[in-house]
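Justification of computing resources. Each target in the renewal requires a structure prediction run like the one illustrated here; the chain below, 93 residues long, is used simply to show the kind of job we budget for.
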Amino acid sequence: KLDNDWEQFSIHFDHVHANFLSNLKEKYPNLSPSDLKLCAYLKLNLSSKEIAQLLNITSRAVEVSRYRLRKKLNLKPEVNLFDFLLNSSPKTS
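Resulting structure tokens:
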């Protein structure tokens, strides 16, 4: 049920946000479904506390996930993760 809910969410999210998740998956194939979920929630401008409540984990676990996501995206320390995701431009066909 949860996987199906996420599948539906990601389809609608991609539709509303110009294939954001699909483009991320294509550009960073090493991202896990959990990473993509975190990216979607960050793109929605949710706080770590809000994300923790949605995922039923601690705020600290969200911070650790954000750190790991930054590593997978090869972001430099001076690059803000939220800004990076917000400004991830959709690919032009």
